[in-house]
Amino acid sequence: MTRRNRRYSCFTTDEYLAIERISPIKHEYLQGQLIAVAGVSKAHVIIAGNISALLVNHLRGTDYISYAMGMKVCLPALNLFYYPDLTITCDRRDRTSIEEFILYPKLIIEVISESNEAFDRGDKFSDDKTISTLEEYMLIHQSQILVERFQCHSNNLWAPQIFQDGDALVLSSTNLICEIEALYKNLDQLSSMP
Questions:
Q1: What DSSP line would sit under 114-128, residue for residue?
Q2: How far is CA 169 from CA 84, 103, 161, 178, in A?
Q3: For residues 164 and 180, is the Cβ–Cβ distance under 8 A?
Q4: Which DSSP symbol is given to 8?
Q5: Residue 42 has pLDDT above 80, yes or no
Q6: Quick check: 45 and 189 in contact, CB under 8 A?
Q7: Looking at the DSSP assignment, which residues form a beta bridge with residue 137?
Q8: How is residue 139 annotated by DSSP?
Q9: Cβ contacts of residue 3 below 8 Å, gap of 6+?
């Protein structure tokens, strides 16, 4: 099952936001189309929870706000809404409690699997690169200890960096440095047996 697994008819952004308020399932919005977001694995949830806990603790007392899994990012110029696994913003314009989405993320993190990797690495990353405030985009693999971090430099050039088992993970946008294994804690408690 892929992340973009079911399409619905054409909707305005206001209709989309109204549907999302009452829908039992999440949808991403791609230029009038609602795309049902597929479910995630236990490993996905554990990894997303680990990085979220690390960032929430690290950013406590700062102007940064961390949003996990349920917060949409709006790309108005492209007429899109995405649900990243984790988003960090420190922009005051994202501080209103009225909005159901953020517009000015500094960091976007996606936990990837075989089913969503092509989309998160391809179209979604390409779209997210258009966000002027975005400094880093991170892909966390769930099938192995591997993190890919893309950092924006001048002229919208995105430099990749790979972190593997034994490395210290560095997130420049938030000044977080941690052992990469911290992202994968408790995965060993999942049994491969039914």
A1: TTTHHHHHTHHHHHH
A2: 20, 26, 10, 5
A3: yes
A4: -
A5: yes
A6: no
A7: 108, 150
A8: E
A9: 28, 35, 37, 38, 115, 116, 119, 120
What's the token pair of residue 37?
């977001």
**For position 6, what pLDDT does the model report?**
52
Rounded (10°) CA dihedral 188, 189, 190, 194: 130
**pLDDT number for residue 118:** 86
Q: Which two three-digit tokens encode residue 72?
A: 């949409």
Contact 153, 139 (CB under 8 A): no
* pTM for the predicted model, two decimal places: 0.90
Q: What six digits make up the tokens of 192?
A: 């491969």
Q: Alpha carbon 121 to chain centroid distance?
A: 11
Map tokens 């609602």 to a residue: 34
- As a whole number of Å, the end-to-end CA separation of the chain is 20
Rounded to 5 degrees, what are φ and ψ at 177? -130, 125
What is the token pair recorded at 85?
């696994």
Answer for the pair 147, 169: CB distance below 8 angstroms, yes or no.
yes
Secondary structure (H, E, C), 26-89: CEEEECCEEEEECCCCHHHHHHHHHHHHHHHHHHCCCCCEEEECCCEEEEHHHCEEECCCEEEE
